[in-house]
Design goal:
This protein is an alpha/beta fold. It is 38% helix and 12% strand. The protein contains seven helices and five strands. The protein has a five-stranded parallel sheet. The chain starts with a helix and ends in a 9-residue tail after the last helix.
Length: 174
């Protein structure tokens, strides 16, 4: 490439000029896969008490959970994330663990509300209340509140998307 052509194309070489004239984007595989995963989270809603009303409100048109790519699914085998909201009893804990085990990897958990996070106001006097869903399954994001507002659940989703964005599929050598 002559000096005149280099000046014409901003100092880039011939090979670079081919990429500069097209719609090719170069990115890491991890970034592409993570972008696809965080932009299409399929949700299994597991509403157990009053927090479930706020979870449903978040999915309604005013807050529009769908704009973040969160699609409700009826079965754990199609879901990427479970949103546990409400009082988790010991009896329900076994069912939550079974649902978690049926989900394909990678899977994520959002614990929504004081009851799901730590037992809420019922844990002190209720022998049947689990002191937090994280005693049964690993939780990725905690959404505080009693019940939390839809904005808080949206913030929890954004935190989960940030976590997914920073994950890596590559195995690191020790």
């Amino acid at each position: 490439m002559s000096e005149i052509e280099k000046l014409k194309y901003g100092g880039i070489g011939l090979h670079d000029r081919e990429f500069g004239d097209s719609n090719i984007i170069i990115a890491k595989t991890d970034d592409l896969l993570n972008w696809a995963r965080l932009s299409s989270l399929w949700q299994l809603g597991f509403g157990l008490a009053c927090c479930a009303i706020e979870m449903m409100a978040t999915s309604a048109s005013h807050w529009d959970f769908d704009r973040f790519g969160v699609i409700p699914r009826p079965t754990p085998r199609q879901s990427d994330v479970i949103i546990i909201s409400g009082t988790v009893t010991l009896k329900m804990a076994l069912r939550i663990k079974r649902l978690y085990e049926q989900m394909p990897d990678p899977k994520y958990i959002i614990s929504m509300g004081s009851c799901a996070n730590c037992g809420g106001p019922y844990w002190e006097h209720g022998y049947h209340v689990l002191k937090g869903v994280d005693r049964v399954i690993p939780v990725d994001v905690y959404v505080p509140g009693c019940p939390p507002r839809p904005e808080a659940l949206l913030e929890g989703l954004l935190k989960l998307q940030e976590k997914i964005r920073n994950e890596s599929f590559a195995k690191k050598k020790a």
